[in-house]
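Hi R.,

Here are the chain sequences for the assembly we discussed:
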Amino acid sequence: MLLGIDIGGTKVAYTLAREDGEIVARSRASTPQTGNPKSDVEIMADAARALASESAGESLTGVGLCVPGPLDLTRGTVVHPPNLVGWEEVPLAAWLEDELRCSVRMENDANAGALAEWRYGAGQGARDLVYLTMSTGVGAGLIVDGRLHRGRRGTAGEVGHVAVDWPGESCACGLRGCLEAYVGGRAWTEHLRGEAEADGRVLALAGGRDRIGPEHVLTAAREQDAWALAQIERFNLYLGRALAQLAFTLAPEIVVLGTIVAAAGDTLCLDPLRQYVADHVWPHQAPDLRIEAAQLGEDLPHRSAVAVALALGEED
Amino acid sequence: MLLGIDIGGTKVAYTLAREDGEIVARSRASTPQTGNPKSDVEIMADAARALASESAGESLTGVGLCVPGPLDLTRGTVVHPPNLVGWEEVPLAAWLEDELRCSVRMENDANAGALAEWRYGAGQGARDLVYLTMSTGVGAGLIVDGRLHRGRRGTAGEVGHVAVDWPGESCACGLRGCLEAYVGGRAWTEHLRGEAEADGRVLALAGGRDRIGPEHVLTAAREQDAWALAQIERFNLYLGRALAQLAFTLAPEIVVLGTIVAAAGDTLCLDPLRQYVADHVWPHQAPDLRIEAAQLGEDLPHRSAVAVALALGEED
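And here is the predicted structure of the full complex:
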């Protein structure tokens, strides 16, 4: 049996699956926050063992671990995960291998999401896939020629920081013009709050400037509010620029777009993105590139961690 | 033995090599231009057989073919190579397999150059490499996780058409803002001829506006001519933008830059590019990315075709 552990900021998702990837049991619990990483890991290991005990005697052969934030793959450590108090350079995979006595593979959430959408979701059967997380930040996982591409020290796929304008908006990362500075959930929300019209529909829906979020823009845009539509057009423009760059560089079969795009759907987001890319690559390239919303939704944490476990045997 | 055939606009380079890649014989001849592709291929096959006869009885096990311009890898055809009169959708690999009675692998010159610099040149031992041809046009070959990445229908690596400005200069490809529209040899030459100062050093060196080429700018820049230095600064700016995008997306170990950059050398080109990239990626990424000039120079056609032959056994 395989076990998946997806560590989120507030919840940890545990998943038990067969070697073929079929999920047989799920559980969720609050993310442990003892302030001591070693104790946190012991709590997670206990929860993992409890779920594994449902396997009716079959032994655990591998664990897939899905972790937010940057990993140091050369040292096997979690560098500084957001929302995990006291965690700094934690050798998470090694600690869990000791606790659970089997191989552990660790990936960040963008890479794990790419594996999950590829195995279970929108990208099944694709040879080359780019998965973009579109939530607070923007990151990508790349499947290249049927394998996860992690790049030098695991730093590939930082598509959120590809420049889409020069000099461009300031990004939280310290650079300028980054894709994330336009379409990342945090940056977009700040932009919307700063720009929203005092008498506008979005402001009314949110009930106050400081409450405005992407969801209010999506609602107002569905009602054909002009300002909201203009904001989504801006979102699509910058995301479209990044997608055209990916098409020329990697020529993937499919780009799978996460949260915000999935919520916006075809009319507001995917169709304009497809059109932008078709207009900004060569005519013979456009029909070959599928641009789709992520399919896994709420089940993503479970699928992600199992997909990482399924990749255990593969070459790094 | 392995045989390499590199078809250039004016010359074809033939190369005989051992299975370990060591080159044992070279020849060059004019590119056949009978106007009939079938006859052209027969002439090349004759030259290839003549070189293979130097193998002292060892049989030919594979042929690597290096071809300019777009290939249709799904149909195994050369689409419309520049400078080859009457060639249109020619099934070159299949014809040469019939003529030479062994397996033939075909790649475009960017992919073949990437394989060559990886096997024999600046990128030996790298796991991930990007090779940029920097001549009339700009193209890239990508080695990802130790394998050539061709992408959907072989259209990956068109880094010359990644946008580096919006809306940007018009590109010969019909799009705007493409890297090639700034640093491609043809586009850069046009820009230089249009902008050169009437009393300037570059104009004097070239002996006329219509004779200005990159080599005059390099010469004047080495003499500290301000206008020439500004032109090279512009060249480095746009190329630097594309390299930063590649660093964030693919995180290669090394980017190998061809002709124009290799001619310009460290002071004028490579050092400023390294600095631009260091300033436009995250601090922990910069030390991991090597930016180097191509090493193979005049021997590139021979090495390219053999490197393609060496890749014959590998999965496509």
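The interface with chain B takes residues 127-128, 140, 142, 144-145, 147, 149-159, 161-163, 165-166, 173-175, 241, 244-246, 248-253, 280-282, 284-285, 288-289, 315 of chain A (CB under 8 Å). The mean pLDDT of chain A is 93.

Let me know if anything looks off.

Best,
T.
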